[in-house]
Amino acid sequence: MAVFATARSVLTLGLLASVLVGCGEKQSDSPGVRLIENSRQSGLPTVVEFGASSCTTCRNMKPILEATALQLQGRAHVVVIDLNKDYAAASQFNIRMMPTQVFFAADGRETGRHLGGMAQAEIVQRLGFGHEGD
After folding, report:
1. Chain segment 62-71, per-residue pLDDT in tens
2. For the whole model, what pTM was predicted?
3. CA distances from 1 to 62, 81, 96, 107, 131 (A)
């Protein structure tokens, strides 16, 4: 599981866990669920990809997601959940196929899902940035 938060760093789940301690709400036992919820509450649009390193299409999506994170740095979150490491997150979000991308608006509500591979331009558009220069 990772969040592609900046051009040069990939935040691991463990780094973000300390931010979540003391939020006052009952925390999920799933680190992936906590990561997703934190991203949803950030005020930025978010895409979460549920996949696994054993999935060819998921592996092919990795550079696309990294490029999307770079393009939208500071304006959107790109979160990757490895279902081999955190199946509870898949269960919580009712994931049935890999890869599945789940999109959330800046207000945290789910706006859509996509099954399978996606082009970077489509991800950017579904996050609410219609033009490549946005």
Report:
1. 999 999 999 9
2. 0.79
3. 12, 4, 18, 23, 28
